[in-house]
Prior knowledge:
The chain is mostly helical. Helix content is 60%, strand content 1%.
Amino acid sequence: MTSCYNDIKLNSKKEIPQCTLKYYPLTNIHCIEYAKQKFDDFFHYNIKDVLEYHKLNLNIIEDESKEIMYKLKYIRNIIEIFKNKYFDNCLNLAIDEFYRYYNYNIWNLLNDFPPNLKKKDGTLFWNGDKRMPKEIYFDVKDDYQNDFIYFYAYLMAKSLKIKIKDKNYARDYIVKNLIETQNILTTKEILEQINKLKGENKKELDSLNLDEFSNIDYEEFEKDNDSNHHIDFLTAFSNLKAKNYGIENSDINLVKFIAGKIIPAISTTTASVCGFMMSQI
Length: 281
């Protein structure tokens, strides 16, 4: 019977550094690993945090980090979507996240580390083990962009028990409602805006009756059920990140293999796969 890496305690020394996955990916494997992490954040941990908000309250209020502030704002967005019960709102959040991950975050990274930045030894910062990224702007003809937005909205709506509409509806909605903002904020400006929302968010979240949210559900990643669209989302996410960094795309089978961390049962197959993996790194 085929086993899974998730059942085995891996040596932490073999894990890919977070900075590589988030900022400096070199291979499509890095992009897939990061996509899996974000899937868990979006559709498992953040949904779960809505249900467990009061348990997290002290940590959120005391922690001033950008990530915690984003989380607080994100939880608020999820709650608003749940209250309104419109699939369109799931699409709006998906569009926001598309621009956040593939445009704004890249713009800010290049603002903090400009293309011509040099290290102390005189060599360029964006060189060798650091690929310089570029922003992505929405293109309705790009299937991966449409898939990212649709499957993000689909999985969010599924968790929040909101009626899901089909891809044709989603594409028409995106074309009619997607407006590219020209006001890209710096990291400092983003932090200032988030901190302004802190008191407002806390007051609103503290007043919630969380019993209302007892029927929402969070996703448990399952690679072998094609109808859940988990691998579809990961494929779109990872290939868009790969496009940011000029890395080759991954087909759905490679995404399923890496995200599911399958260990082939036959030794000869294992050897072949190891050879393939090494050729990709």
